[in-house]
Amino acid sequence: MKISLPRLPAIECPVCLASAGRLFASIGGRDYLRCEDCEATFLCREQLPGPERESTEYRQHRNQCDDPAYRAFLRPLAESLLARLAPGRDGLDFGCGPDPALAAMIREAGHRVGLYDPLFHPDPEALQRRYDFITCSEVVEHFHHPAWEFARLDTLLKPGGWLGIQTTFQTDDASFARWNYRRDPTHVVFYRPRTFERIALRHDWQLFFPSRNIALLKSALIKQGARP
Ligand SMILES: [Zn+2]
Ligand SMILES: [Zn+2]
């Protein structure tokens, strides 16, 4: 005889907003949910780190503009974006951190790049204009309200603008508990290709995966606003 246990009600997914999040794993007192719709994996809302914890962590992992290893790490994102930009475009390095290495690399290719970071470059004016391109390198996994953040990024992009995202995709459930990327206490949401497909659909963006752990999104030429 098959006994089916009552399922707990599903939780709203912070990425696609579907009521489709179910408990996926409990590791060291942290509960992760998986969205059955967009396949995002996210930390339970009550356990999100507070601003002090985040600030301490961010100040610990500093990336240096002139560190060749870090530049090599960023090169696939920089190159896939640069290959698609007309000369002399205006961009924003969103979540640039204390040493904006990616912005430096893109400037060297002749583009202008503004900086925004809630902690290190909290310049509200940077969020008052529109850009030909925006980079988000090692940022989206820190979002506490991803759906809201992607909607904001959409408003910051000119029609036909590019959004370049780098984050380590979550692919292997069996190793999730021992996955180093998960262990960073400020990494609270993990994405899969399908997650970006859902985000792209919502905002009417075109989606490309030019390289490992990189999603490139192109905003619509005629913007119609987010779909419900
Ligand atoms: Zn979802
Ligand atoms: Zn990170």
Characterise this structure.
It is a single chain. The chain is an alpha/beta fold. It has a single domain, classed as Rossmann fold (3-Layer(aba) Sandwich), CATH 3.40.50.150. The chain is 26% helix and 26% strand. The protein contains 6 helices and 11 strands. Strands 6-5-7-8-11-10 form a 6-stranded mixed β-sheet, sandwiched between helices. Strands 1-2-3-4-9 form a 5-stranded antiparallel β-sheet, with no helix packed on it. The mean pLDDT is 93.
Key traits:
single chain; 228 residues; alpha/beta; Rossmann fold; six-stranded mixed β-sheet; five-stranded antiparallel β-sheet; 6 helices; 26% helix; binds zinc ion
Poorly predicted ranges (pLDDT <50, ≥5 residues)? Answer: none
Termini separation: 42 Å
> What is CATH's topology name?
Rossmann fold
What is the count of structural domains? Answer: 1
Dominant shape: globular
Name the CATH homologous superfamily: Vaccinia Virus protein VP39
How many E strands? 11
Enumerate how many helices there are, as a single number: 6
Query: What summary fits the major beta sheet?
Result: 6 strands, mixed
Small molecules held by this entry: zinc ion
Helix content: 25-40%
Computed Rg = 18 Å
CATH class: Alpha Beta
The structural class is: alpha/beta
Q: Going across the major beta sheet, what is the strand order?
A: 6-5-7-8-11-10
Mean pLDDT: 93
Q: Could you state the order of secondary-structure elements as H and E?
A: EEEEHHEHEEHEHEHEE
